[in-house]
From TrEMBL:
Enzyme class, broadest EC rank: isomerase
GO cellular component, one term: perinuclear region of cytoplasm
Protein's name in the database: Prostaglandin E synthase 2
Annotated function: Isomerase that catalyzes the conversion of PGH2 into the more stable prostaglandin E2 (PGE2) (in vitro). The biological function and the GSH-dependent property of PTGES2 is still under debate. In vivo, PTGES2 could form a complex with GSH and heme and would not participate in PGE2 synthesis but would catalyze the degradation of prostaglandin E2 H2 (PGH2) to 12(S)-hydroxy-5(Z),8(E),10(E)-heptadecatrienoic acid (HHT) and malondialdehyde (MDA).
Gene from which this protein is expressed: PTGES2
Membrane topology (UniProt): Single-pass membrane protein
Reactions catalysed according to its record: prostaglandin H2 = prostaglandin E2; prostaglandin H2 = (12S)-hydroxy-(5Z,8E,10E)-heptadecatrienoate + malonaldehyde
Protein keywords: Cytoplasm, Fatty acid biosynthesis, Fatty acid metabolism, Isomerase, Lipid biosynthesis, Lipid metabolism, Membrane, Prostaglandin biosynthesis, Prostaglandin metabolism, Transmembrane, Transmembrane helix
Organism listed in the record: Gorilla gorilla gorilla (Western lowland gorilla)
EC number assigned by the record: 5.3.99.3
Keyword RNA-binding included in the entry's annotation: no
């Protein structure tokens, strides 16, 4: 295959990971665990008995004072216990993450790879990056799965390979919350053969938007079924729709296509000759391919309008009453949408997106949350 064609095939978003939609439903939750509640009792002499000889006003004041004191006591006790539980969960998560040695095989400009990096950085999971040459792909010759991202997780003597960005994220999040062995967790996301809308056989993964948690763990993460369903819905939306708006927008004109490939060559792992081929022949090819993508996904003549509509649809879903879809901190849907959009930074499409939609405040909040969680990345 021509080197330019191989670069193009590797680097357009559909080539770095799979996002074909299946009709399967997630598996049921794991067995329910019981919940423990808080309980407290007050002892000592009743203030009613102590004040019985006094005036009714004194009796009422004493009862009110005791009620207020007990309320403050239980509030403080609950608050301190909640802090202890949070500290215990954070310590447990840190202990789990420290047992993993992660290596991410990626193209830096791939939106699916960017999603995984956003997740790893936000959860402060240390990882090594191996930039894959999109022509030779020698860095992933060990794998029969030839797409990126690929994550290799070393846990003690055990090494696990995780494929597909959404599977990587779901499996690692399940691991951090539940503490189940990663070797067991990845069996919950079986690889399956499917046929895409071009009639080509591809590999898909079951349950990939589903966290394999019991009810108690799910309650800790989501607080309710609605939040869980919402997160899954928008994670899939990012894969099935948002990511397909990237190529038509960053390769919209010959000038934009050339600028995009200049960025790809600078950030990617190319030799001098490969870089020159990719920059000029790849840009020309992707400009033409972007026109076919526009037709395939039934985009408007001005593809920016589809990008703007998607961004504002996302902002409306987040709403005005919470900083993130996850509430006070980003959830997996926030990180997925941010990761997809981030690959356009520095390009005209990104600047236009920030200027013509209401997404910038949310985007900057997610960026800040990731930076504060993992300043090293």
């Amino acid at each position: 295959m021509d080197p330019a064609a191989r670069v193009v095939r590797a680097l357009w978003p559909g080539g770095c990971a799979l996002a074909w939609r299946l009709g399967g439903r997630p598996q049921p939750l794991l067995p329910t665990q019981s919940r423990a509640g808080f309980a407290g009792a007050a002892g000592g002499r009743s203030p009613v008995a102590a004040a019985r000889k006094g005036s009714p006003r004194l009796l009422g004041a004493a009862a009110l004072a005791l009620g207020g004191a007990l309320g403050l006591y239980h509030t403080a006790r609950w608050h301190l216990r909640a802090q202890d539980l949070h500290a215990e969960r954070s310590a447990a998560q840190l202990s789990l993450s420290s047992r993993l040695q992660l290596t991410l095989y990626q193209y830096k400009t791939c939106p699916f790879c960017s999603k995984v990096r956003a997740f790893l950085d936000f959860h402060a999971l240390p990882y090594q990056v191996v930039e894959v040459n999109p022509v030779r792909r020698a860095e992933i010759k060990f794998s029969s799965y030839r797409k990126v991202p690929i994550l290799v997780a070393q846990e003690g003597e055990s090494s696990q390979q995780l494929n597909d960005s959404s599977v990587i994220i779901s499996a690692l999040k399940t691991y951090l919350v539940s503490g189940q062995p990663l070797e067991e967790i990845i069996t919950y996301y079986p690889a399956m053969k499917a046929v895409n809308d071009q009639g080509k056989e591809v590999t898909e993964f079951g349950n990939k938007y589903w966290l394999m948690l019991n009810e108690k763990e799910a309650q800790q993460v989501y607080g309710g079924k609605e939040a869980r369903t919402e997160e899954m819905k928008w994670r899939q939306w990012a894969d099935d729709w948002l990511v397909h708006l990237i190529s038509p927008n960053v390769y919209r004109t010959p000038t934009e296509a050339l600028a995009s490939f200049d960025y790809i060559v600078r950030e990617g792992k190319f030799g001098a000759v490969e870089g020159a081929v990719a920059k000029y022949m790849g840009a020309a090819a992707m400009y033409l391919i972007s026109k076919r993508l526009k037709s395939r996904h039934r985009l408007q003549d001005n593809v920016r309008e589809d990008l703007y509509e998607a961004a504002d649809k996302w902002v409306a879903a987040v709403g005005k009453d919470r900083p993130f879809m996850g509430g006070q901190k980003p959830n997996l849907a926030d990180l997925a949408v941010y990761g997809v959009l981030r690959v356009m930074e520095g390009l005209d499409a990104f600047d236009d997106l920030m200027q013509h939609t209401h997404i910038q405040p949310w985007y900057l909040r997610v960026e800040r949350a990731i930076t504060e969680a993992s300043p090293a990345h």
